[in-house]
């Protein structure tokens, strides 16, 4: 069971998705899982994830478009980690982000 579940919700984020995922993969803290919840993207978002072969990553495509809050809750329901971290499809994390946050949390 991973310590941190990273939730990345995406909707037509092909242009920035790989950079966001790369920033998770580059973390100095490695005990994470990444759940990418695709909210019915009509672009190449799924294709942007094709190069990643990592058992810690899970891609889920929603069968219907829903609100961001609902999509996040569905991804949280799948999460196995003690902690939840959210990453937007157009954001990137610095390499020590998870390590530093967990140190502050006492984990």
Structure commentary:
- With 107 residues, this protein is an alpha/beta fold.
- The protein has four helices and four strands; from the N terminus they run βαβαβαβα.
- The radius of gyration is 13 Å and the shape is globular.
- It has a four-stranded parallel beta sheet, sandwiched between helices.
Topology:
Layout: E1 4-10, H1 14-25, E2 32-38, H2 45-48, E3 57-61, H3 68-78, E4 83-88, H4 97-105
Parallel strand pairs: 1-2, 1-4, 2-3
Strand content: 15-25%
Distance between the termini: 15 Å
What is the general shape? globular
Task: Evaluate the radius of gyration.
Answer: 13 Å
Helix content range: 25-40%
Average per-residue pLDDT, rounded, comes to 96
What order do the strands of the largest sheet run in, or round the barrel if closed? 3-2-1-4
Query: What's the helix-strand series?
Result: EHEHEHEH
What's the count of strands? 4
| Low-confidence sequence ranges | none
Category from helices, strands and their pairing:
alpha/beta
Q: How would a crystallographer describe the biggest sheet?
A: 4 strands, parallel
Total number of helices: 4
